[in-house]
Amino acid sequence: MQLRRKIIDKLNGFWMITTLITILVLPLVICLGLYIKAAPIFEQHSFLELVFSSKWEPSRGSFGFWPFIAGSLYVTLLSFLFTAPVCLLAALYLTQFAPRALIRIMHPVIDVLAGLPSVIYGVWGILVIVPFVSAISVPLSDSPSSGYSVLAGGIVLAVMVIPYTLNMLIEVFNTVPNGLKEASLSLGATMWESVKHVVIRGNYPGIISAYGLGIAKAFGETIAVMMVVGNVVKASGNPFNAAYPLPALIANNYGEMLSIPMYDSALMFAAFLLLIIILVINLFFRLLIHKTKRL
Amino acid sequence: MLEEKFFIRLSALFTYSLIAVLAFIIIVIFYKGFAALNWDMVFKTPRGGYYYGGEGGVLNAITGSLYISIGATLIAVLIGMPAALYLNVQLIRYRRTQNTIRYFLDALWGIPSIVYGAFGFTLMLFFGMNASLLAGIITVALLISPIMVRTFDEVLCTIPKGMHEASLALGSTRTETAFRIMFKQGFPGFITAVLLSFGRGIGDAASVLFTAGYTDNIPVTLDEPAATLPLAIFFQLGSPIPEVRDRAFAASIILTIIILFISIGARLLSKRYSKTNLK
């Protein structure tokens, strides 16, 4: 009996550690797998050439990813501009000022917003945001836009990223010791002054990390952006014009990927690039959060 | 003083506007899709001429989505549940290691699903498979495993250490401690983790785009391709025919209802099971 329990314990411990290791090496395996698939394109072009060239003619063998990277950066930047103030103030309100009843309602609201599939956001974007952008483009821009544009992508992306960033900010602000705020209040500062100087200033690393992770999340979002952004290979500065972000490139072209030489490894390179960028941002900002949490 | 008033009002406005946005999204989806929603949508597969406005529904996509996310959730439970228990039972004395592992898991959570999709595709080519139910299940399982571990772990690490020590002191092995004490105490968290992963799996389109394929039939074996609900919406929305586009909106209602049920269910179930917990 004793022996049986011990054997089960040993076997089970082995199973458990195997699963944990499997999950932990997963990113390495993904990196490796994508790199091997992308390797053929490295033999013909250098890394910098691939990233910074803007010549995209797959049938002639030239693969410049710059228009796509620029498109991704532009959409992400716009969405960041929308999310940053909303998330910061809403997180402050929810952690410092809000009545209890509101907090009870907000939890499920944030959960559902975070849980809605991206294709639903895409449908909503097509129904609401695209016509809206098209309408405001008439007075604001010299060329009327169809609405399928960087701006529409940015707005839809912002709504998708808000619950994610907001959740992290709430977590960050909840770690502020009450004593610190009370000390500030007892010195005669008003509530808002205490919030500004104690809650915000004391949490710069946390706030920046939450923003950084939100940006990484926005950068990799695929379907919703792809549905509203227009998907035209052309880098331009006008937010009412269409763009073609990197994830959309991968998702749109998998069908013809095997028919043009080198195209498949070019797309796998795009996925590899996306993975590396997002993994680096994640590792960096998560480190910042973990470091501050331990204090 | 003016500044204070302004900012508090503004932040209240932003907070309430989030509720408004959620309501707006749900109302728009229901309003647009309601006209085309009927029982045929839910209980029939596409018939001939469906994509030109003919008869049929999206049963193929609903079952495909369910098959893929149930399969993927099962695999994720098999991988994720023991991993989370190991992290909280065997490694409990090594705070440093625990934190490092949590750090990597958090970073893993951030990898976008299109990357998992591309990776699943390379795996598929490597093993010489075609786009199929099995490939879809494996890809989605990889996508949701980190979510499963981290969500379950989040609850496990709040269990008082004394409970764990008491179990060991009574002579149970670590396995028994893990499954009889920690798993039982963490059960509400486990339910949340399962439902959250399931919801993520059923709503994700980018990972199954390459791997699961698309078909009008209900898959019977693992090596057949399978349609999924998000992709059904996506493809039908691309059609120039208004009837087909209306059906995409109706399918969006179905998907939204599934997700709402999962969210609400996760809340209710975890509340119900945490009542019986020792505190």
Please name the CATH topology of chain A.
Answer: MetI-like fold
- The appropriate CATH architecture of chain B is Orthogonal Bundle
Strand content of chain B: under 5%
Shape of chain A: globular
Report how far apart the termini of chain A are: 47 Å
CATH class annotation of chain B: Mainly Alpha
Strand order of the largest sheet of chain A: 1-2
SS-based class of chain A: mainly alpha
Sequence-ordered SSE layout with sheet pairings:
The complex is a heterodimer of chains A (295) and B (279).
Chain A: H1 2-44, H2 47-52, E1 56-57, E2 62-63, H3 66-97, H4 100-115, H5 118-140, H6 150-174, H7 178-186, H8 191-200, H9 204-220, H10 223-228, H11 246-253, H12 263-294
Antiparallel strand pairs in A: 1-2
Helix pairs in contact in A: 1-12, 3-6, 3-9, 4-6, 5-6, 6-9, 7-8, 9-12, 11-12
Chain B: H1 2-33, H2 39-43, H3 59-89, H4 95-109, H5 113-126, H6 133-156, H7 161-169, H8 174-185, H9 187-203, H10 206-211, H11 229-237, H12 242-274
Helix pairs in contact in B: 1-12, 3-6, 3-8, 3-9, 3-11, 4-6, 5-6, 6-9, 7-8, 9-12, 11-12
Descriptive labels:
heterodimer; A: 295 residues; mainly alpha; MetI-like fold; two-stranded antiparallel sheet; 12 helices; 77% helix; B: 279 residues; 74% helix; 0% strand
Q: Can you describe what's shown?
A:
The complex is a heterodimer of chains A (295) and B (279). Chain A has helices spanning 2-44, 47-52, 66-97, 100-115, 118-140, 150-174, 178-186, 191-200, 204-220, 223-228, 246-253, 263-294; strands at 56-57, 62-63. With 295 residues, chain A is mostly helical. Chain A has a single domain, classed as MetI-like fold. Chain A has a two-stranded antiparallel ribbon. The radius of gyration of chain A is 23 Å and the shape is globular. The mean pLDDT of chain A is 86. Chain B contains twelve helices and no strands. Chain B has helices at 2-33, 39-43, 59-89, 95-109, 113-126, 133-156, 161-169, 174-185, 187-203, 206-211, 229-237, 242-274. In chain B, helix 1 packs across helix 12 (242-274) and helix 7 runs antiparallel to helix 8 (174-185). In chain B, 48% of the residues are buried. Chains A and B meet through helix 1, helix 3, helix 4, helix 5 and helix 6 of A and helix 1, helix 3, helix 4, helix 5 and helix 6 of B.
